[in-house]
Specification:
single chain, alpha/beta, Quinone Oxidoreductase, Chain A, domain 1, Rossmann fold, 17 strands, 23% helix, globular
Length: 330
């Protein structure tokens, strides 16, 4: 491919503000590919923090996305769920559909070490779930569910529902999802899951995954834990304080809380699977068409500066909050 390579990318330019800026791309070097983007996913929890400047200064280094440009708080080009077609690079990659941890951009150059081939039976709009599925897979590895356990997932966002979807597949597991948003019940049902309000969440749970990002959700998890129950904390609270009732039943019940974070392969599989193998498995797990229930709404890339605030906000009156908005590219 000859001539000047250009691209346009979405940048967060200030609190709740974004713009599309052009840039010149260099040609891909050894071990790199040029990708034309087909779709990208908006990870609402993390990208909401970035968009509103909520990333604490203490976390600026840890929160950098692999191919981020700019620095926190602003201006910053952020995102990590892009799917596209290889236009230039090694011959055996030409024309391949790939997933890459890249911000929202219509064309980009990426190292092959940060690209994974998308299976033929996974459409691009579902493939943008790969980063979320990889997180959920890591949570499941940390949680180590056992056959016949009573399980609870608190938080019916994308990661919470994917965690529930994975754990529910263990034999004889009795699993419930708790979330205050009743509009999520239909999505849960499409995934074969049952959703209840937090006040109705059952107690005596052996395993609980907390993925609501809200301290009240973690308090619900503690309340519902059985004797020696295991709580896996999959949320990231940013700069929010999280007060917890750690006396009473928590202490006497020998309840444990452990964090799960996707930056490292979960302990039970560390040394057994690489990051690349974990991502490849996450992509294969996306072959189930039922997972389309998590994708949407669709928004055109050129509309991001106008639409991003609404996509990252709460539910509109009488409606439901988006799960994983999908950015489409012409």
């Amino acid at each position: 491919m000859s001539g000047t390579l250009t691209a346009t990318a979405f940048w967060t330019t200030g609190p709740g503000q974004g713009a599309i800026h052009g840039e010149t791309l260099r040609k891909p070097g050894a071990g790199e590919v040029l990708v034309r983007t087909m779709a990208s996913g908006i990870s609402r929890g993390t990208e909401r923090l970035v968009f509103h400047g909520g990333v604490p200064e203490s976390e600026w280094a840890r929160m950098r996305a692999p191919q981020q440009s700019g620095d926190f708080p602003f201006p910053v080009k952020y995102g990590y769920a892009a799917v596209g077609v290889v236009e230039d690079g090694p011959e055996d990659w030409l024309g391949a559909r790939i997933f890459s941890l890249h911000p929202h951009q219509d064309r980009f150059v990426a190292p092959l070490s940060l690209c994974a081939r998308v299976p033929d039976n996974v459409p691009e709009w579902r493939a943008v779930l790969a980063a979320n599925m990889e997180t959920a897979l890591n949570v499941a590895w940390d949680a180590q569910p056992m056959a016949g356990e009573r399980a609870l997932v608190v938080g019916a966002g994308v990661v919470g529902l994917l965690c529930a979807w994975l754990i529910s597949r263990f034999p004889a597991v009795e699993l419930v999802v708790a979330d205050p948003d009743p509009s999520r019940a239909a999505v849960a049902k499409a995934l074969g899951l049952r959703l209840v309000a937090p006040a109705e969440a059952p107690g005596g749970r052996d395993l609980i995954v907390h993925a609501s990002g809200n301290p009240e959700g973690l308090r619900t998890a503690i309340r519902c834990a059985g004797f020696e129950g295991r709580i896996v904390e999959a949320s990231w609270f940013g700069d929010k304080e999280c007060a917890l009732p750690l006396g009473g039943a928590f202490h006497a019940g020998r309840v444990s809380i452990r964090s799960s974070q996707v930056g490292q392969v979960a302990g039970p599989m560390r040394g057994r699977r690489t990051h690349a193998e974990r991502l490849a498995l996450a992509l294969r797990l996306l072959s189930d068409p039922a997972l389309d229930a998590l994708c949407g709404p669709m928004v055109a890339f050129r509309e991001l500066p106008r639409a991003m605030a609404g996509l990252l906000g709460d539910a509109a009156e009488g409606g439901a909050a988006p799960l994983l908005p999908v950015v489409t590219y012409e």
